[in-house]
Amino acid sequence: MAQADSTPTPVRDPITGAETDRSTNQVGATAAATLPRRDGESPGTARLVNRRRRSVDRRYFIGGSDARIIMGADESALLRLWREKRGEVEPEDLSANLVVQLGVTTEELNRRWYQTNTGQVLTDVQRQIRHPVLRWMAATLDGRVEATGAVFEAKFMLPWAFSEEAAAEKYMAQLQHNMWVIAARSAVLSVITGGGKWVEIAIHADPLYQHLIVTAERKFWRCVESGEPPRLFGVEPPKPRIEAVRIVDMTASNYWAEFAAVFRDTRQAFFDHERAKTELKSLMPEDAKEAIGHGVRAKRSKSGAVSFDLLVTEGDHAAL
Question: 3-class SS at 297?
Fold first, then answer.
């Protein structure tokens, strides 16, 4: 068990044979680089070949997408991941999953769109980085913001299932895992939706949740080594702090229309009410504990604050 957390001597990448650079925590240039495109091979085919190569490599470490499963609530997905890491089953074939393939296809577009609209430069695209101490932890980055060092994550989501809060919560474990691995203090979640919308969401490192992630992943990796089936960890992700940057048109909301009408109709009454309280307070003698009259009672607290309530008379009861 102790070997899982130790820092062993340089080992060779199981796919390429390249040594891992312990000083930079990055797989050597031969391993980190994607395979060159063959003559006549389309860019899409080359991407799929490189992704298959990395999917085999993923058996030997816990990555960001694995963190989503380990910290999630799907026990069957957790057990399948455990079997994949142990080499008992092949990784799930997602080539026929349209949403997943849309994410693969739009990843490069997402990076280009982010850089064009923010002026930021992305580096370390598809760079695999190992944690300096926990060798079973790694992050395969969609990119890294050069100016800030923030983790960049590109995602595609369907429009009817999208909200900024839901997106941040769905990918929180993956982002926090990757930030922990590369010691980043922030991350950028760049989302393109099927409705032709692009959203940038800033996520900050959460040390407490990262501690829980490391604890859960350590237990999972020990299960991979021992053969003992893992159990769900059962921790809710932290609520994301979404920066308010959008202007939203609520014209189509019936509830908004209903309460907007109430707000307009009662606005002047509210101002009259607040002005009446101010005047009543000024009329109340300084040494008075209570002041009563015309169906209203004012009460002064020990701290000097004055509150008001309505007096219910017998006539009011009779009317009811």
Answer: strand
Q: How many domains does the chain have?
A: 2
Query: What residues make up the domain containing 294?
Result: 254-319
> Is the pLDDT at 5 greater than 60, yes or no?
no
Are 8 and 109 part of one and the same domain?
A: yes
In the block, residue with structure tokens 């219910």: 312
CA torsion, points 228, 181, 114, 167, in degrees to nearest 10? 40
Secondary structure (DSSP) of 192-226: EETTS-EEEEEEE--HHHHHHHHHHHHHHHHHHHH
Q: Which token pair is 188?
A: 């950028």
Quick one: 283 and 184 in the same domain? no
Task: Tell me, yes or no, whether 210 and 285 share the same domain.
Answer: no
Q: What is the pLDDT of residues 145-170, one digit of tens each?
A: 999 999 999 999 988 878 888 899 99
CB–CB of 120/145 below 8 Å?
Answer: yes
Where is pLDDT greater, at 154 or 17? Answer: 154
Residues contacting residue 117 through CB under 8 Å, at least 6 positions apart: 198, 200
Tell me the pLDDT band of 86, cut-offs 50, 70 and 90: very high
Strand segments (E) across 22-141? 26-27, 122-123, 128-130, 138-140
For residue 19, what are the β-bridge partners? 12
Inside any domain, residue 235: no
pLDDT digits (tens, 9 = 90+) for 43-55: 555 555 555 555 5
- Tokens 């008075």 -> residue: 288
Same domain, yes or no: 279 and 141: no
